């Protein structure tokens, strides 16, 4: 394999589609071996970042993201929840810290942030979680430059905003906003000095070319995202994608390994899909360079199941992994 020089420790923002394709299409074991090698050059492979996710506002969203159980227009069987109370959120963050989590991510089923009282309340939550000494992350939909600045001033560490798929396939999945809207928010986040968390989903019915296309955009951003969540579609009954087949584990491994090789410094997060995997499947993802996971006290990621905290603890013990403490 001549596109990756394993001994050269460099960050590249000029990957070509052909190079990414060649990496992605390698024989699986060669790909995993390369990714595992790159992983060890840049990270301690026994440390996994544990991010706790909390849905602070659930369901009732005006967008039409075809995968999402929280879109109001699909008849999904989820419990809609208004914006949570700040004290409840802070108590949850404190428990997460106690359990060994260093990052707390608050998610809201909003199309975009509006300059209203709810935003002021989220800013207060950000201040409170920051004061606990945790890295605070939010995912609230689209942001303006000014809103990004306000979040940064409140102490926001990272912002999650995914590209989901390739630019071409995006319009098959969402019609209520464009890929450009996503890229604009990412720009505002970067310019405000907030760490960028941006990745996507596989299993939406996209082609391998679409996956490679998304990795191409991510790896050619002026700066790579500091974290790259790779989600396997969580199939939610009532959504247009509910009946798609479960994504094959080797496709997830291939995606994670390629992301690891082309964005070596990023935290690559094994995100949605863990509850449909066992320890064996997750181990392959860690071997391929994933070094971060989401956990959740409620045993739900947002509205779909996620492994129990003690299952993760047992898995870490078995594999000799420890939570990363920065
Ligand atoms: N509403 C905000 C937004 O869309 O940016 C923030 C929350 S949204 C749930 C965050 C991300 O979760 C989405 O961009 C998508 O990548 C991922 N996601 C949502 N539903 C999913 C599902 N059913 N399976 C896998 N990933 C999903
Ligand atoms: C991300 O990339 N994955 C998380 C987080 N960012 C907010 C959300 C996944 C949602 C999975 C389906 C659900 O439970 O709604
Ligand atoms: Fe709304 Fe986000 Fe779900 Fe899309 S992914 S429907 S924007 S909550």
Give a description of the structure.
The protein is α/β, with parallel strands linked by helices and 326 residues long. It has a single domain, classed as Alpha-Beta Barrel (TIM Barrel). It has helices spanning 17-24, 28-42, 86-98, 117-131, 145-154, 167-173, 179-191, 208-219, 249-262, 279-287, 309-319, and strands at 47-57, 103-108, 135-139, 158-160, 195-197, 200-202, 227-232, 267-270, 292-295, 322-323. Strands 1, 2, 3, 4, 5, 6, 7, 8, 9 and 10 form a 10-stranded parallel β-sheet that branches. Helix 9 (249-262) links the parallel strand 7 (227-232) and strand 8. Helix 1 crosses helix 8 (208-219), helix 3 (86-98) packs parallel to helix 4 (117-131) and helix 5 crosses helix 7 (179-191). The radius of gyration is 18 Å and the shape is globular. Bound molecules: S-adenosylmethionine, 6-(5-methyl-2-OXO-imidazolidin-4-yl)-hexanoic acid and iron/sulfur cluster. Residues 53, 69, 107, 139, 160, 162, 199, 229, 231, 234, 271-272, 294, 301-304 line the site of 6-(5-methyl-2-OXO-imidazolidin-4-yl)-hexanoic acid.
């Amino acid at each position: 394999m001549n596109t990756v020089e394993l001994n050269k420790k460099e960050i590249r923002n000029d990957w070509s589609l052909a190079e990414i394709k060649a990496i992605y299409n390698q024989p699986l074991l060669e790909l995993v071996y390369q990714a595992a090698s790159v992983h060890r050059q840049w990270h301690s492979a026994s440390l996994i970042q544990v991010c706790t996710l909390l849905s602070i506002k659930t369901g009732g969203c005006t967008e039409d993201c075809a995968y999402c159980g929280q879109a109001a227009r699909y008849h999904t069987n989820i419990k809609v929840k208004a914006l949570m109370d700040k004290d409840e959120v802070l108590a949850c963050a404190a428990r997460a810290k106690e359990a060994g989590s260093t990052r707390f991510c608050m998610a809201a089923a909003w199309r975009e942030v509006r300059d209203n009282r709810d935003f002021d309340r989220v800013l207060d939550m950000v201040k409170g979680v920051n004061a606990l000494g945790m890295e605070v992350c939010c995912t609230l939909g689209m942001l303006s430059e000014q809103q990004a600045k306000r979040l940064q001033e409140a102490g926001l560490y990272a912002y999650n905003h995914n590209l989901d798929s390739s630019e071409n396939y995006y319009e098959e999945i969402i019609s209520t906003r464009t890929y450009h809207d996503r890229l604009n928010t990412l720009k505002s986040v970067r310019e405000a000095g907030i760490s960028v968390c941006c990745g996507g989903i596989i299993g939406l019915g996209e082609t391998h070319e679409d996956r490679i296309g998304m990795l191409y955009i991510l790896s050619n951003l002026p700066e790579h995202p500091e974290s790259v969540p790779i989600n396997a579609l969580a199939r939610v009954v009532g959504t247009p994608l509910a009946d798609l087949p479960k994504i094959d584990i080797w496709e997830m491994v291939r995606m994670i390994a390629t992301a690891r090789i082309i964005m070596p410094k990023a935290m690559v997060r094994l995100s949605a899909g863990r509850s449909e995997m066992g320890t064996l499947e997750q181990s392959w993802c860690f071997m391929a360079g994933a070094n971060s996971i989401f956990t959740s006290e409620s045993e739900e990621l947002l509205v779909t199941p996620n492994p129990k905290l003690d299952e993760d603890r047992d898995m870490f013990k078995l594999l000799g992994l420890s939570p990363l403490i920065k």
